[in-house]
Amino acid sequence: MEAEMTRQERGQAIANHEGQVRRLDEFSYEVKSQSGNGDYAVLSTERGWLCSCPDHIYRDAKCKHIWAVEFSLLLREVVSSRTVIEPISVQACPRCESDKLVKHGIRHNRRGDLQRFTCRGCDFRFVINLGFEKMKASPQVITSAMQLYFTGESLRNVQKFLRLQGVNVSHVAVYKWIRKYVRLMKGYLEQVRPQVSDTWRADELYLKVKGDMKYLFALMDDETRFWIAQEVSDTKYKHDARRLFQMGKERTGKRPTKLITDGLFAYRVAFRKEFLSQWGPRAEHIHSIRIRGDRNNNKMERLNGEIRDREKVVRGVKKKDTPILTGYQIYHNYLRPHEALGGRTPAEAAGIEVKGENKWMTLIQNASQKRGAQDIAKRKSTEF
What we know:
Elements: H1 2-16, E1 21-23, E2 28-32, E3 39-45, E4 48-51, H2 54-59, H3 64-79, E5 83-85, E6 101-109, E7 112-119, E8 125-127, H4 139-150, H5 155-164, H6 171-189, E9 199-209, E10 212-221, E11 227-233, H7 242-252, E12 258-260, H8 265-274, E13 284-286, H9 298-314, H10 323-334, H11 346-349, E14 352-354, H12 359-383
Parallel strand pairs: 5-14, 9-12, 12-13
Antiparallel strand pairs: 1-2, 2-3, 3-4, 6-7, 7-8, 9-10, 10-11
Helix pairs in contact: 1-3, 4-5, 5-6, 6-10, 6-12, 7-8
């Protein structure tokens, strides 16, 4: 028992020192030897943790290196600050700002049902339709259309589905909804910082933009599968990938210590200029990837497959700054659960939790509220 406690205490001491435990991928870690004789490989298997050190091999004990990995994982969960995006609830009267509100029935109209409130302070009756003001369709219809579209349906198929529900809109109106709310959510979510790992992946995918061949460059976190950044380029071999990596650093507030890409020369140049540093741990660039083994880019290829499936339905995008790619990035990160993440979304794995039965509505209302507050602050600043 005393020996087990000693291993546990030594493992905790290893984990408390930065750089002693290094994550290679989701199943393997590398722990530095305290004696300075090299590194030990710690693997996660169906039988549990395995370590390459003699203590684990010959004594079949839970060695200090396994304890160090477990403590390291625990420390990451404690240190990472979670961001919770809650559904918007009515808390104050828009006229007198009193919080003495009561629900006063449902207002029924052709645009949908809206909760009506009465203020006990000034007897003002009002409804709040945050984010969907002056829209002819209800929030449920608009968010259902967006969910259908980004799960794989075409604009005209979404239109047919809505007609079955008694909502007569054109496919052009559906596209305008997507364009409006993707732009709104994009501005809001860019201010929410994900907690990503130190290993990133990048890859490029060809697609047709108005009939011309273009290339979509994407950057993704290895551990959480969070789609960090993207850009569309006219060329592949002459493209400067520095802007993609700069967007990644701005979005996450950090740089990776390991980058996995294919052998495209643009990645090598951009890696040296953006991710190499004289301070901190030296970054590693893995560009000689293989189909099999641990040096592959299969996770990035899976993301490319998602984008390719979406492109087939829309039969190519019409412009480089299309809201379709940005909207699918939002859907991939915040709404699409991934089996490899245990049914969680990449945002949840990166410390961002979107609550509510309708997550589209939660994001839209929070984005609208944030923009409204910024507009008020801007207007007040110009008055003085």
